[in-house]
Design a protein that fits this description.
The chain is an alpha+beta fold and about 425 residues long. Helices cover about 25% and strands about 25% of the residues. It is globular.
Length: about 425
Amino acid sequence: MADTVIMPKLGFDMAEGTLVRWVKNEGEAVKKGEVLAEIETDKATVEVESNFGGFVRRLLVDAGAVVPVGTPIAVIGEKDEKIEEAAEVKTPAAAVQAGEQPAAVKAPAAPPAREGTLQAAEEVRASPLARRIARDQGVDLSTIQGSGPGGRVTRRDIETAVSEVQPAEAPTPAITKPQAAFPAAPSLKEEGVPLARMRALIGRRMAESKQQVPHFYVSHEFDMARVTEIRQLINENQPDDQKITVNDFIVKASALALRQFPNLNASLAENQILRHGNINIGVAVATEAGLMTVVCHDADQKSLGQISKEVREMAIRARSGKVRPEDIEGSTFSISNLGMFDVENFIAIINPPEAAILAVGSSKQMPVVEDGQLKVGFRMKATISADHRVTDGAEAARFMQTLAQFLESPMKLLI
């Protein structure tokens, strides 16, 4: 019996996604677990695996279409199997009753183009964001030389093309000015940059979080001398792409500390606090489109080496736009680390529906006083932002003390 593939829900607030491209075409064999399509959500472009094995019998949605969650997008069955009509439904039930194909499952309409250029534009390799900007600006994609991988046209290529065709400003009469002592700096060009879908989502969610969640903040300074020493010993004979980072220690220490403070590994669900059974640490990763959170599942049960390998691989996929659904789903507590940018300390906005987020600054050498003596030490500042509806300042402070115990006695993280 043929199976119908639907647009998956890749996030708790996802309502629709853009089908970027089909990896498998009609008639091709597909195994369960193989990548079937690339789908762009508000967070990232995700490689979606097939839940079924067989042959791709029907592709119900064109590449570039914006599709609501739950809408049928493909049919997978045996090679010579007769496909039932029910399996070929192309629209949600509500649209069928209305007798119309909803616009959401059609490829977005493009502005009028010269004859012969539309088909050429469709064949050009370009990101979904670049295609949308090109449509809005009336730019013919087939005339753009892409600078991305494999000649892929990017947003920057479109913006460059638009700026080059802007009409020149009318010349103004020259005005003689007194010679300045130093040459004037060139004036900056004023420009409008289209708001990317991911950036718009980040802005909306952070605004909602800041307005609706009563944040409070607790800061702590950590002695990182032991972590620094043990990290150097571990990394002595490790290749560069396998070295343990300070953030790996922080992820592991936070996960173990959360075992003792379930209210910080929780969400507010209507009239109850939902304490999660798993400790899944979200790690903020900077990408070209904005911050993305990748998730280390069950971090309290994994070794430092496992955490380091998983987070590194997920970060690489996030920056290349090839994250998997499991990479970005299910975080219960988040960490945002700006230490690599020489940041002393900062505060972060809670990532709903989580109850807390840890903002981490740089671990650096500085003068410290110990037992009345001035010495050289390693210190790091971090601040937890927490939801006052779920926890309070005393509990957050105790969490930070427990986190310090793990980071200042890091052998506990290796057991």
